[in-house]
Amino acid sequence: MARTPDADLPSLWTHEPHDLLEFRAGTAVADIETASTPGFTGKKKDSGDLQDERNEVFADLQEMLYAGSRAGDTRKILLVLQGMDTAGKGGIVKHVVGAGNPQGIRYSSFGKPTEEELAHDYLWRIRKALPPAGHIGVFDRSHYEDVLAVRVHDLVPPEVWGRRYDEINAFERELVDDGTTIVKCAMFVSLDEQKKRLAKRLRRPDKFWKFNPADIDERELWPKYQEAYQAVLDRTSTEYAPWHVIPCDRKWYSRLAITELLIEALDGLDLAWPPPDFDVKAEKRRLKTA
Ligand code: AMP
Ligand code: MG
């Protein structure tokens, strides 16, 4: 029998992370407890082995999704990672998504738009990066920058960014109707924890590449970013593409939580290994004499 990955929630969780982390109307960004570990009863020391175990479950399901697409299944998943610098987006890519089979992963990061990108609508570069059938698309930053950085830095007039919330909802509706499961993670780190992480980037030569002097200037805009994140959560958390609020001061927690969100999304697709489109017995016989 083919192996079926065990997508059941491990015992160290009291709830599906989804149930606790999904954005609820009325939640204030300023009140998010960034050092909390909602639903997890274990400690940091428990997280390493559990992460390894769940990475394997994720990897099996992800490969199943990809295998299914070879047999004609057109469904896909889009993981949207949004967060301030140092929130841990790169760590999710490396330690969570990185456990998967790269054949079925489509990674894209979105920085300051190039001249070519600016000459197009803001969703142009986003559309080009969408995951094909059977893939998990990973957005390291996303179209939400166009109502976050753009809003905070006044890069376009308010009436322009103001229209984008509805446009984004319509865009995501289109993706969902096209067979995309969207997993949106808003990753929140405290100002203090960010300072520690930036200090580490300045202390370690192997971290310099992640440091950008502008990150320090962005800290002064924290209240404006909080306001902009609040609007994103209030206006773009829909029933078909809800936001998840991820506390990220403890990296081990945010990684475990997002792994479970991905496993849950994959499990919800009721995947199965595609049956052979050939006669297995006959092929075995043929191989013996080949
Ligand atoms: P990083 O992810 O650390 O490489 O940083 C990328 C930078 O690009 C961040 O400061 C983002 O806020 C910025 N960025 C991403 N998308 C946009 C956009 N559409 N408009 C302006 N800035 C952006
Ligand atoms: Mg950065």
From TrEMBL:
Gene3D superfamilies xrefs: P-loop containing nucleotide triphosphate hydrolases
MF GO annotations: kinase activity; phosphotransferase activity, phosphate group as acceptor
Highest taxon above the source species: Bacteria
Keywords: Kinase, Transferase
UniProt cross-references to Pfam families, sorted A to Z: PPK2 (PF03976)
Any one GO biological process: polyphosphate metabolic process
Domain Polyphosphate kinase-2-related: 58-267
Protein name according to UniProt: Polyphosphate kinase
Organism: Mycolicibacterium madagascariense
Highest classification ranks of the organism: Bacteria, Bacillati, Actinomycetota, Actinomycetes, Mycobacteriales
